Amino acid sequence: MAKIDIDVEQRKRQAVANFIAGYNCAQAVFMTYADVFDVDVELTKRLSGSFGGGMGRLREVCGAVSGIFMILGLHYSAVDPHQKVTKTANYAAVQRTANAFKDQFGTIICRDLLAIKHHESHVPSDRTADYYASRPCARFVEAAAVIVGKELMNASGNYDSFITD
Fold first, then answer.
1. Integer Cα distance of 22 and 142 in angstroms
2. What InterPro entries does the database record attribute to this sequence (predicted)?
3. Which of 12, 110, 119, 141 could form a disulfide with 59 if both were Cys (CB 3.0 to 4.6 A apart)?
């Protein structure tokens, strides 16, 4: 696998711009890297649309983190269920990036990141100036774009080192 060269600063700015434009956290991250894998941006928006708000506002895994994981799935492409080496490399990358996010924010769980203690409606919040001022989500999107960019650039393609039977 060839080394991937990514302008992480540009990707970070683009992911935040996507979020501020109204895309959910998962979409904002996932669509930022569509071109790296020659994937249609419209498709990335559709695929990641349900992951915002910690999975459809269930406030589970942060959508920005889910965006990372979707990008890693494209990168490692373990499409054959018997490709243990690639699947293991993918899971290792998922764990590394999740841990990097946790190191920055303490968790990957949306409700904990936002300190939400009660059940929320399935209706998305209106994207107003007050919304953006009260939510730290742009920081999470920014961090996710950087974390996945660095992961992609550091991926060696030597997946055999991930197997420790």
1. 15
2. CGCAxxGCC_motif
3. 110
Q: Do 155 and 1 meet the contact criterion of CB atoms below 8 Å apart?
A: yes
Instruction: Determine the structural domain holding residue 32 and report its residue range.
Output: 25-155
Q: Could you tell me if residue 9 is inside a domain?
A: no
Give pTM, 2 decimals.
0.91
pLDDT in tens, 139-148: 999 999 999 9
DSSP states of 58-84 as a string?
S--B-HHHHHHHHHHHHHH---STT-H
- In order of 9, 23, 51, 65, 79, the CA distances from 153 in angstroms are 13, 25, 25, 18, 22
Residue 48 within a domain? yes
Residue 18 lies in a domain: no
Of the chain, the end-to-end C-alpha distance in Å amounts to 23
As for how many domains the chain has, the answer is 1
